[in-house]
Specification:
Elements: H1 2-27, H2 49-141, H3 147-168, H4 181-188, H5 193-227
Helix pairs in contact: 1-2, 2-3, 2-5
């Protein structure tokens, strides 16, 4: 009886060691080189068919349990990888949508700035013509004796009103002007962008003032022809 119990114990140990080695292979863990299967010498004993049959069924059941555990681990790994992929796709789609929204906002802001600048130029033209006509009417009545008081002062007040309106309402809009070689030279010399931006603003104001004076003078001459 002691021999039979020793044989059973040896078989159980071999089954457990084989199952542990299989689980380590499935999980990808390195097997310990020092661990080796302990082989016990077989001893002759009386054949007992029912007991061997029970041991074989137990071995088969343990193998099936290990196989099911390995399959479940593989399925969990596969599910985890499948769950990760849509997260990356969502991030990429969000980045593309954000970049598209930024491009649309910049295009809209540029188009709005151009439209506002056109309206401002139209307002300057209309007011220049109206002020020139009123100045000529004042001179024709005899109230304005000096040309400086009747022409230069109204024009200066009109330009001051234009620039104040632009500074308060259209502070983000830069008045257009003809670009020259000086801007390129300043940028090549390493001048700060703030200085270049200030230069563009000053040149925009000077260009707008010269255009307004030309329109004002032309309208004044036309009014002088029709009134005289």
């Amino acid at each position: 009886m002691a021999d039979i119990e020793a044989i059973r114990e040896a078989r159980r140990r071999r089954i457990l060691q084989a199952s542990e080695i299989r689980i380590n292979r499935v999980l990808g863990q390195p097997a310990d080189e020092n661990e080796e299967l302990v082989i016990y010498p077989k001893r002759t004993a009386r054949p007992e068919h029912p007991k061997n049959h029970g041991e074989n069924t137990e071995f088969n059941s343990t193998q099936e349990d290990r196989n099911t555990a390995a399959d479940s681990l593989d399925k969990e790994k596969h599910r985890s990888t499948v769950k990760i992929t849509p997260i990356k796709r969502n991030v990429s789609t969000q980045n593309t949508s954000v970049s598209q929204n930024d491009s649309l906002n910049t295009s809209r802001s540029s188009s709005d700035a151009k439209m506002i600048l056109k309206h401002f130029e139209f307002l300057r033209i209309v007011l220049s013509v109206m002020v020139a006509y009123l100045c000529r009417r004042v001179l024709s009545t005899g109230y304005g004796v000096f040309y400086f008081q009747s022409i230069i002062i109204p024009f200066a007040l009109m330009e001051a009103g234009f620039f104040m309106f632009k500074h308060k309402v259209l502070h983000n809009v830069t008045l257009p002007h003809k670009s020259s070689m000086l801007i390129g030279v300043l940028m090549l010399c390493g001048i700060k962008p703030e200085v270049v931006h200030l230069y563009n603003q000053i040149m925009g104001y000077l260009t707008a003032a010269s255009e307004d004076f030309a329109m004002f003078f032309f309208a004044f001459l036309m009014a002088n022809i029709f009134i005289a």
